[in-house]
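TL;DR need structure tokens for one chain.
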Amino acid sequence: MKRRALAVQLLSAGRTTALSTEGGRIRFWGIFLAAGLMMLGLSGLALAYATYEGRDMRGAARTPQILQQGSADKAVALWAWGNDDVAGRQHSVTYIEPLVQNAPLPPGLNKWPEPGEAVLSSALIRAGAPEGIESRYGKLAGTIGKEGLQAPEERFAYVRPRANLLDKHDMYPLKGFGVPAGSAAGVGESMSIPDFSVLAAGVAGFVLLPAGALLLVSARAGSTARERRLALFEALGASRGARGIFTLGEAAVPTILGAVVAACVLLPAFMLDIPFPLVDFTLSAEDVRRCAAWLVAAAATAILLVLAAAVLLHSKRRKSAREVRPTVGSQRLRASGPWMFPFALLFAVRGPELAGDDLRLPVYALGVVAVLATLPVVVGAFCGWLGIRLAAAGRRLGLPGLLIAGRRISAKPRGTARFVTALIVMIGLVAQVQLWTGLLGENATLAKQTQERIGSTLLSVSPYADADRVQDFAAAMPADTELLLVRQTPPNGESPGKITLSGTCAALRALDLPCKTSQFNAARSGLDPRVGELARWSLAGGDGVVTVARGPVEGAKAQGEESLSLVAVSKSGEALSLPRLREAARTHLAAGASADPLGQSWLLGSNDLAALATWVRLLGLIGAFLTVLAIGISALAEFLRFSREIAPLSVLTGGNGVNGSVVAWSLLFPALLASALGSTISMWLTTPITVDGGAPVPGDMYVLLGVGAGVCAVALCAWGWRSTNRAALRWRPAPD
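>> reply
TL;DR here they are.
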């Protein structure tokens, strides 16, 4: 009973003194922010997992139960899958055809569409409105219900082909819809999003790591006065548990308040679908409600982490119970700390090469986190080592500022490490954001260059169909458009590849080609740019033969290894109407026909990567915000302690010269060193993530990053010097 009463008194005493000690207010609000943001970060992991699980469940519910050959079950419908794109983003198109009355419906449909009708998701209708998506697949028959979509903003379409375009031999028979979760075919949005491990690595690196840095600097704010008080408790006979309960009382209120505010932020997500800024994503309230238990666990974990950090991050028991001031030894870094950095760097740079494809990104993310967590320790250890030599030099040369600065940084390497932690994490985050948003494959780059040169003045149309369908398509094209047949023969070991362009004289002249049979090398100069680009994409680089022949485009038959396709060209050189030609192709050639600029598939793949880059930007923005908070709290706490330590010396020396020297070596030098090392190490950390052997981020960016961080460091330290000078003017002796 007495122990319980004592514990309550210690908790109450800790709560009472939380705001009254040196740096108490900074620590209170820092822990408040760290608790709330740590809870939001852990909740983000839980919500991400629940979202992926929900996608898998809803995707499994709409996956067809395809009948295998020889199955005794009766087919009730036909099913096929294709894709299309609007606004530069791919989406899935599912073709369905019922075979019996009362055939089971896919989830999200309340009736079977009629032949030539389509049912689209609301997100697809909104995104594709400028491109005429409502009529591209036929008559719009309704919208897909939420239960039929993997995510609220998924772009998806169900299409029932027109009777004259129904190719049953290209469709699969099925007995119904719905397969066990985890065995879905992956049709839909899940095909173009990264694995959960990728998003989890992003949340861990861009959110939880800065939140951890914020927690570290907040828990140690005002540590000198707090350790002095704990040392007094120890001298009076307080046990380690009693000291821990007192410290728990200091941190409990801001921790619980931060968790409550975070819970209030999450509460609307239980009732409403929440759209995210910067990214094309809406959080499903259904998924949030399903993971309520995980969110409670995330909140409990965040509270425990913050309280554990607040209690454990203080000095160890002293050798003498009568010593009530922090000792120099209490500020020493562990001897093993700096030596962990090279192993972390080796793990980050070489570890992904040894990991499997599924683990490569998590291993890389873990290595980056380890490097950014251990690099501040290296800076602190180096400054501690240098401080001993600076103190010796200051004593030998008679320079009091150098002597004081050297002794200070040699005695407090942990304080130096904490001061530069947020700055190093900030540099690492910016570098990683630039790295992941700048990735672009070689073929995607070539596709982008091609479209910049010729735009949509030439479109590749596929598949090639029978004569009647090709004639109907040609008749439906705009007046400024001509059609050419392309026969493509792939290269082999004996001869280069070749393409043959056939069409009317008007079609050939649209590309400045002669209206007679002729042959030339694809690399010949003076060709219409569209011919050169067509040859380059058809012949894998443009090294081959181009044959021109006058003749019909319909009714052709492939010979040997030939492949047949069509190209639509603009006679005037103006851009063709892509939506109109796509609708004409799907109306007359085939239900899944396409009309695309050259290299479109590669460019769409890069656009999926660009969509991933928007997530990197969003998470990076959150991480930058958290890191700025950490830098601000760290700087405020450090300047407050620094000002109180140096103020008496300024009074005794009668000037600000000592202040300037101590600020330069104690604050500015570690910050500049952290800026230089942070930018250099960040450049090394990009080596495992390369595209076609090249680093995607220019080297000049790291120079600018280091210079920018250095300028910020100078500004912060100038602020520190000003704070020290003002504190010296206000200083009066006090019995502390």
